Amino acid sequence: MTGPGLEYGTATENSLQLRQRQATVSGAVENNMPPTPTVQRIFKIFNRAEAIERFEVLEKSLGNVKRRFHGTKALCGLGVLLNGAACMRPECNACNICANGFEVRGEHYSRFGDGVYTSATSGKSNDYAGNDNKAHGKTFRCMFLCKVAAGKTYKIQLGNLPADQCPPPVSVAGYDSVVGDVGGVGGLNYDELCDSVLPAYWIVYQLN
């Protein structure tokens, strides 16, 4: 497959396992994600040189680099079919992230304010993987595996913050990123991390 900054490979498949998050809503598994979705293929993302340089600066200065998942919509089913082409439409998040990296501009979120949201739990990111892609009678979704320069993290257990507190004043307090930690009453079931992110892999997985 040819696409923006993508190369198909299987070398990392054994190290990447997508797991269903162990939670139910009204007795039903959210989004029908099976206990162990089948990873069909993994693409390595070749980021622009300037994006890599910026991230390496953060990596050295902040440290605490994590691997985190990010779910988003792929209108063209990027990677589902090996002979498919990237659409590069402005509204296709997957193609634009592969080509240009993440941008916060124009995106607005109510949980913790504007930012790039990632999670250590693939099932959480599956909730945001957007549209299902059908091929050969099967259903596929896709998500990114990213490198995140988290630095010093500001942890919060609330499910969201009031609008006048978004985003939290982490820079004033000396923090570099926000972590929605689990365990608070009325809070989060799964962690979320909002920070400087470099897409590393594009994962295509089968739901049925």
Map the helices and strands.
Blueprint: E1 6-9, E2 24-25, E3 28-29, E4 38-45, H1 49-62, E5 65-71, H2 93-100, E6 117-118, H3 122-126, E7 133-135, E8 138-149, E9 153-156, H4 170-173, E10 177-180, E11 192-194, E12 196-206
Parallel strand pairs: 9-10
Antiparallel strand pairs: 1-4, 2-3, 4-12, 5-8, 6-11, 7-8, 8-12, 10-11
Label this structure with key terms:
four-stranded mixed β-sheet; 12 strands; six-stranded antiparallel β-sheet; 208 residues; globular; alpha+beta
Report on this model:
GO terms for molecular function: NAD+ poly-ADP-ribosyltransferase activity. This is PARP catalytic domain-containing protein. Strands 1, 4, 5, 7, 8 and 12 form a six-stranded antiparallel beta sheet that branches. The protein has a four-stranded mixed beta sheet with strand order 6-11-10-9, with no helix packed on it. Helices cover 15% and strands 30% of the residues. About 17% of the residues have low confidence. The chain has four helices and twelve strands; from the N terminus they run E-E-E-E-H-E-H-E-H-E-E-E-H-E-E-E. With 208 residues, it is an alpha+beta fold.
Summarize the structure.
This protein is α+β, with helices and mostly antiparallel strands and 208 residues long.
- The shape is globular
What's the rounded overall pLDDT mean? 69
Q: Pairing-aware structural class of the strands and helices?
A: alpha+beta
Number of helices: 4
Question: What gap, in angstroms, lies between the N and C termini?
Answer: 23 Å
How many strands, what sense, and barrel or not for the largest sheet? 6 strands, antiparallel
The proportion of residues in beta strands is 25-35%
**Ranges with pLDDT <50 over ≥5 residues?**
10-16, 19-30, 108-113, 182-192
Work out the number of β strands: 12
- SSE order: EEEEHEHEHEEEHEEE
Report the helical percentage.
10-25%
| Whole-angstrom Rg | 17 Å
Protein name: PARP catalytic domain-containing protein
Domain PARP catalytic: 24-165
InterPro entries: Poly(ADP-ribose)pol_cat_dom
Organism: Sphaeroforma arctica JP610
